[in-house]
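Protocol step 4 of 6: structure prediction from sequence.
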Amino acid sequence: MVGKSHVPNRVAILDDYQGVALSMTDWSALGAGVSVQPFHERIGKEDEIAERLRNFDIIVAMRERTPFPGTLIERLPSLKLLVTTGRRNAAIDVQTAAARGVLVCGTSTFATPPVELTWGLILSLARHIPRESAAMRTGAWQTTVGVGLHGKTLGVIGLGRLGTEVARIGKAFGMQVVAWSQNLTREAADAVGVELVDKDVLFQRADVVTVHLVLSDRTRGIVGKRELALMKPTAFLINTARGPVVDEQALIDALRRSVIAGAGLDVFDEEPLPVDHPLRRLENALLTPHLGYVTVENYREAYGQAVEDIQAFLAGTPIRVIEPVDAGAFRTRQI
């Protein structure tokens, strides 16, 4: 795995937007002979990525920020190990990596940060917290009238690890919770204590719709013009999953025409969101820059395990290996 002629010693850390990766764990544990270089800006074009990373042996990628299709992997002649934060990464062509002799490894991440942010967005929309905070700084006092959550209906799309926790918090707020996804069973919904409903019924009944689906061919655009039209004009849409799960243009149109009351968005079709993007100009769109996973605790966990992955690889005993199973499917192997 590690050739005798060259010991991998050049590590790139991608998408370190806040410039904090080096402070989140002890990278010096990799040894004095290993150099670590963080990249604080997003490298957007594949040609530029290939050029800037061509001499790195090991790359640490923030989950699904920079894609690694087969065409890019084939243009990285020095690459031997690709570590992704998270236990899977749909933006990495694991099959091509394996064919090229590149090992892909993952890390753990915590479920609680995106769940907490989801509720931060819900509460901020319901009680107009950002708007009232901004108004206070101009000398104003009580400029809006919020809505309560108790007794309202929360619609959860996707009742997996994150959706389940969001649903439980909704129940703690005294909300009625309904759920739907393509594979959700009544037994799974009953186990969480929520009501399984048809997709259309969820959009019609919910006062808050929150999306917790993995992006795939089946889920891309699953919330579109038709679904938004079914929602109450007083309802909110929350997306902390992946941008393309919601048809972005349909959502922009719905917000412009007040088809729904507002949206809380942490994820977008293009990230970072372009400066001139129309969502930035909509007052009923509450935007955060993909903060779902961004906490000190999550960074320490992910980067700490990334160092462990690299150490294990260099020792010839790789851990947390993500193996190709079939197109678009991955299996994590813990050694």
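Step 5 (inspection) to follow. The first helix runs from residue 46 to 53.
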